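Re: [ENG-882] Designed sequences occasionally contain unexpected residues at chain ends

Forwarding the minimal case from QA. Structure tokens:
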């Protein structure tokens, strides 16, 4: 007897095999997706780790000179490897933002990118400046001399100093002992002169010694000469003086020169004569006394271990210093200002000149942030 065959079992087998095939394909796809996700996750961890390491390396290898050359709002880029870089942006004279970027591609379909940012604040030597002029010995202000505690912005510097202006004035003269001629002009916060008791002068002397040594360690130029002539300073290929930067703004200003904020160390142990009529900027740190000739214009900081002598005879060019002046007068020689000499507190050039000695430290209230 012949049995009729319909092929029903074959249909069931085909259905089961198709189901198994689809399950296998789905499982294989799931495994592949899991592998891709794991690889991308691993890439992401590597990228984040490299971005963090790059940020730390950028802070460790900080270039104070190039950082000081940036204007507020400007950025520069440091490439630390083939897959990572850091963008440094100046927010204020002593505040910077560091943005690290890293890209890793380790066989996944797409690369992983990570960005980390950190705000840092420059730590620099804190000079004991209690006013526009601080003298830890005796100072004499004779006829024609002017010391102003109101914050000043040098001519043409308004945009550059917009975020650094001080709203209230400081003390004009802080000194252990002072003689003020009736024809001298001294104005500032409170009394024209703040007299420092011996105990305070002694404590400030220790602070001076610490900041003086730190600024010398950070000096960009050191000279043993007894004369520093701002008009005769050697220039480099760009035409900028190798020592001080240019304080000229507006017409005739050379941008590369106005971005220089050097720290000049005058190591001569006697009296150093500062002369010349070219307006300069930066910090002058002297081991001995400093005598300033008529016509000198300086924006920045004067840190003098000896005494300060300025005499401007009638009919000669005035002396103008904007920033901060601190005099130790270690030998007790006494400082003297006479004639048309103008010393004025100016927070902006003082901070900009000290930035060259600054090292970045993290601002704690600004933590890490990651942007994918």
């Amino acid at each position: 007897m012949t049995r009729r065959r319909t092929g029903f079992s074959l249909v069931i087998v085909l259905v089961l095999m198709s189901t198994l095939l689809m399950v296998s394909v789905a499982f294989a796809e799931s495994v592949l997706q899991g592998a891709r996700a794991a690889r991308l996750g691993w890439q992401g961890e590597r990228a984040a780790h490299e971005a963090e390491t790059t940020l730390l390396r950028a802070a460790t290898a900080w270039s104070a000179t190039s950082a000081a050359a940036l204007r507020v709002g400007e950025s520069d880029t440091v490439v630390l490897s083939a897959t990572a870089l850091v963008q440094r942006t100046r927010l204020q004279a002593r505040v910077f933002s560091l943005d690290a970027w890293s890209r890793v591609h380790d066989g996944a379909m797409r690369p992983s990118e990570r960005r980390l940012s950190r705000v840092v604040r420059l730590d620099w030597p804190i000079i004991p400046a209690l006013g526009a002029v601080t003298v830890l010995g005796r100072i004499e202000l004779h006829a024609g001399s002017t010391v102003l505690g109101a914050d000043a912005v040098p001519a043409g510097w308004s945009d550059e100093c917009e975020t650094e202006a001080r709203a209230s004035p400081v003390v004009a003269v802080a000194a252990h002992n002072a003689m003020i001629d009736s024809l001298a002009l001294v104005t500032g916060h409170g009394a024209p002169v703040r007299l420092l008791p011996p105990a305070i002068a002694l404590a400030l002397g220790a602070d001076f010694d610490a900041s003086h040594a730190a600024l010398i360690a950070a000096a960009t130029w050191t000279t043993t000469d007894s004369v520093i002539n701002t008009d005769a300073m050697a220039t480099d290929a760009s035409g900028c003086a190798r020592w001080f930067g240019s304080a000229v703004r507006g017409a005739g200003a050379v941008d590369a020169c106005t971005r220089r904020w050097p720290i000049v160390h005058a190591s001569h142990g006697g009296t150093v004569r500062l002369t010349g009529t070219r307006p300069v900027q930066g910090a002058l740190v002297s081991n001995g006394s400093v005598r300033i000739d008529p016509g000198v214009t300086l924006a920045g900081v004067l840190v003098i271990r000896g005494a300060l002598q300025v005499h401007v005879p009638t009919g000669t060019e005035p002396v103008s210093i904007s920033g901060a002046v601190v005099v130790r007068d270690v030998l007790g020689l006494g400082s003297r200002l006479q004639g048309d000499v103008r010393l004025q507190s100016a927070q902006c050039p003082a901070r900009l000149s000290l930035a060259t000695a600054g090292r970045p430290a993290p601002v704690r209230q600004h933590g890490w942030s990651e942007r994918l």
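QA comment: On inspection the terminal residues look reasonable. The longest strand covers residues 112-123. Proposing we downgrade this to a documentation issue.
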